[in-house]
Amino acid sequence: MLPVAELRGLAPRDLNERILASTQPLLLRGLVAHWPMVRAARESQQAASAYLQRFYKGGPVVAMLGLPDIGGRFFYNDDISGFNYRPVHAPLDGVLAELEAHRDDAEPPAIYVGSTTIDTVLPGFRAENDVDLGGREPLASIWIGNRTRIAAHYDAPDNLACVTAGRRRFTLFPPDQLANLYVGPLDFTPAGQAISLVDLHAPDFERFPRFREALAHAQVAEMEAGDALFIPSMWWHHVEALEAFNVLVNYWWRQSPHYMDTPTNALMYAIMTIRDLPPEQRKAWEGLFRHYVFEQDGATAAHIPPAAQRMLAPMTEDMTRALRAQLLKRMNR
Fold this sequence. Notes:
- By secondary structure, the protein is an alpha+beta fold.
- 26% of the residues lie in helices and 25% in strands.
- The protein has a nine-stranded mixed sheet with strand order 2-3-13-10-15-8-7-4-6. It has a six-stranded mixed sheet with strand order 1-12-11-14-9-5.
- Residues 111-268 form the JmjC domain.
């Protein structure tokens, strides 16, 4: 595995299109080292917890709890009929107290608060700890826990992940390694995204032989508090939190307009309607998708008068809404 390409000495104002539209991961050393949250975490876990609680106004968060024997790996149960943890609704200050109580345990229970919207749970936090992404309107989330492992998965948006307490290790795989990652169910997942079934700490190469090829293409980022990692859309990433107390802030944004639907829905609908067709019909539909989607260009609809191109013209918000309504009507017949 190779290290992720690294840039040093950048301030948030230095984030430009070359970085934020990169098609390769980039490790941005010290990008948010100036954040008050990072300074508090470097002082102590108690100082970091106290800093977070300054902004907490009450209300529950969703925490995932696992027994010590899962070793921090949030995953399926043995037959993939369920999961090896349970979600609970709890106050954030209670979760922080639980993390403190188990800080020195040799084998602590796994505690993990994932993907929680900052502006909802910690209003005011971003006034002191934020990154200007040049006019983008990202979803900013916070992740809090002890030593945890999250299986390799992809996200459709671009992602800027900022370590603000503890240490993390990201292992990234390019999108073309999909077939070598042995991905689990698409419609039954631990947290909404399909995950690799391979345990990165103990890969079973007899069961998952092609994973050796995935590892040959992997990139690794070892991160400390103050570091940030840009993860391009669709890159698979396995995430490990390496200390007894870890906090990460991340920003997700899409390069497509906000009104466009997620391609995941198109994939699932295609599986339902195309995958099990006879081979010749599947091949015909493959050609249609190539023509109208993957190899579409200015010539695709040039023979149709512009005013009559309708959905073959560049997509607009109004057209998207009309198509969505049409699809829903067809699907509900």
